[in-house]
Amino acid sequence: MRFRDRFGLRKNRGSSVTRLDREATDSDIEALIAFARSRRGVEFFVEPETFATDTTAVAVAHDGEWTRRRVGSPKVIAKVARDLKLPIYDVQIVGYPARMRAWNARNPNRRIDPGTPGEAVSS
Length: 123
Description:
- The protein has 123 residues and is an alpha+beta fold.
- Helix content is 30%, strand content 20%.
- A 4-stranded mixed sheet has the order 3-2-1-4. A two-stranded antiparallel ribbon has the order 5-6.
- It is globular and about 35 Å long.
């Protein structure tokens, strides 16, 4: 059976693969798409690959609610953003939006779910 690289994760990964973290999967991309489709005013913020973590993207809704997922490379999330007609920013250039910090302050009982890194869930 031939593997389909639905979102171009393997094609756009590049030569280096982070060793301490798992790679992005289709379910990571699908979670970002589902978040974006179920909320309004969503923008994507791309976070660079680090020694320990693959490239990630944070999707932030109009009210500051957010989720973070691995995306494999900036090209992958750029294609998703283009397909959804949503803006995308480099977090190293623009930083995180103030509404995201405000949302975190308004929701102190939310914690990071270890099963889905970056996903805020109710405690």
